[in-house]
Amino acid sequence: MLARMDSTYDLLVIGAGINGAGIARDAAGRGLRVLLVERDDIAAHTSSASTKLIHGGLRYLETYEFGLVRKSLAERELLLRQAPHLMWPLRFVLPHEPHLRPAWMIRAGLFLYDHLARRDWLPGSRGIDLRRHPAGAPLRPDLVRGFEYSDGWTDDARLVLACVRDAAEHGAEVRTRTACIAAARNTQHWLATLRNADGSQTRVQARALANAAGPWAHQVLAEVLGERHAPPLRLVRGSHIVVRAVFAHPYAYIFQNPDGRIVFAIPYERDFTLIGTTEVEVHDPAAARSSADEEAYLLAAASRYFAQPIAADSVVHRYGGVRPLIDEAGDASRVSRDYRLAFDREGAPVLTVFGGKITTFRRLAEEALDLLAPALGCTAPAWTQQGYLPGGDLPANGSTPPEVFAAYVAALQARFTHHPAATIHRLARNYGREAEGLLEAGAAPVAGDVSAAELEHAWTREWARDAQDFLWRRTKLGLHLPPGDQAAIAAWFDARRTTAGQSS
Q1: Claim to verify: residue 149 and residue 168 sit in the same structural domain
Q2: Per-residue pLDDT at 336
Q3: CB-count exposure of residue 60 (10 Å: 0-12, 13-18, 19+)
Q4: pTM of the full structure
């Protein structure tokens, strides 16, 4: 099929995971004409399959990655302020087992963790008596001492979506279900061929290209861009399981295991506990499906600490994602989570992202644009350290982001008394300031508490095109809604696609 010539852009970004979304956002905000393409859905792969932490990386201190921890801690504080509806603080409890790590080592690590970066409002670490602490009740009775510290939690897929939304609001064009299948460059431009969801092809010009394809970055370099030189990557699958709630308190756990690894157990979606992660080297970036061995490992690792072992039949959901790590010798758990930017200016520029973690995406994007902007004649300064992500500009009724969010929810509940409090809280958590419009629409529910207005919002403003997009990435309602309700939402999207096809 002959590709038609479409448009010319300053920057073509390949991949709408967290790094591609961050780069597109930063570039559009600097006044560049940006096209972001994603072959699947926004955050369809690694960026929706994380442990969902905005954290400094306490365990990175053991590999002496002080710079990465400092950078991550600074970003943690900033991101919690910029999106108080999508990110919130979480207190972690580390039960102490002396034969795994001595207490002095943990105290020293936590002291560094508290002081490597400015901490405006998150409380510091402390030692705790598990016999008196709420988090001690579900644990083995012989675990009597532990430590408590602060980190952050996020809805990873919605964080990516917020960045894409912000990019679009600053003028970026976003095309999902659109694959970049070939690109060639001359001294001034890249000429890229895009395959659209319907199989048709278009060609676009771009003055520069950013390869943010995550675990597929090497594949894009070799098969799409025709480039052969790249730093080696290690592809590591991280798997997680979701089980029925193991505990009722709001604390998360970080568990040390005899093999040297750590496993998190985190309160999740009100009724569940999230347990992860594993680190299994793979060779195929699409090999994200978790294995039975990984599931058994996670169940055993968490059950070592809880008084009541977690049964296999309590698992209600499982997921995995393939992380691209900078290739280094040794155990995958000790390989750096930092990122590397490869910038090639021989002809039209191309920047490729290797590695990275969700916490540092904003810094990564800023550094990427600091490389790309001069090559494009752009003198606009960095800007993403200021302001809010879409939906995050809540009324300033409180001194901390959690207080601001709680006050906003309370105000909505007082105003929209005909809506259930749980529905209001869910909408506020997902959409922030935009929840008001959805509540005002007052449309009849399509399924559960999901209104036609919410589904239309997902279609028109969030690029959702099927039930999977909505149930697992725009929301986590796939965990909550029964099969009949999920089928009703699938039918809504089927009908909406038909309507969209007739109007095009």
Answers
A1: no
A2: 61
A3: buried
A4: 0.95
Structure confidence at residue 2 (pLDDT)? 46
* Same domain assignment for residues 271 and 291: yes
| Residue 352 to residue 347: CA distance in whole angstroms | 15
Residues with Cβ within 8 Å of 317's Cβ and at least 6 positions away in sequence, in order, are: 241, 242, 272, 478, 479
Q: Does one domain contain both 200 and 240?
A: no
Q: Which residues have CB under 8 Å from 380's CB, separation 6+?
A: 29, 30, 31, 373
Burial class (CB in 10 A: 0-12, 13-18, 19+), 160: buried
- Residue 425 CB neighbour total at 10 angstroms: 18
Alpha helices in 170-323 (DSSP H): 217-219, 292-303
What pLDDT, in 10s, does the model give residues 172-202?
999 999 999 999 998 899 999 999 999 999 9
Could you give the CA distance from residue 90 to residue 61 in angstroms, rounded to a whole number?
20
| pLDDT tens readout for residues 428-437 | 999 999 999 9
Q: Say if residue 136 is in the same domain as residue 251.
A: yes
How far apart (Å, rounded) are the C-alpha atoms in residues 28 and 92?
Answer: 37
241 and 278 Cβ atoms separated by less than 8 Å: no
Task: Provide the 3-class DSSP secondary structure of residue 142.
Answer: coil
The pLDDT assigned to 118 comes to 84
83 within some domain: no
Domain with 437, as residue range(s), is 401-503
With CA atoms as reference, report the closest residue to 119 among 400, 365, 339.
Answer: 400
User: Into how many domains does the chain fold?
Assistant: 3
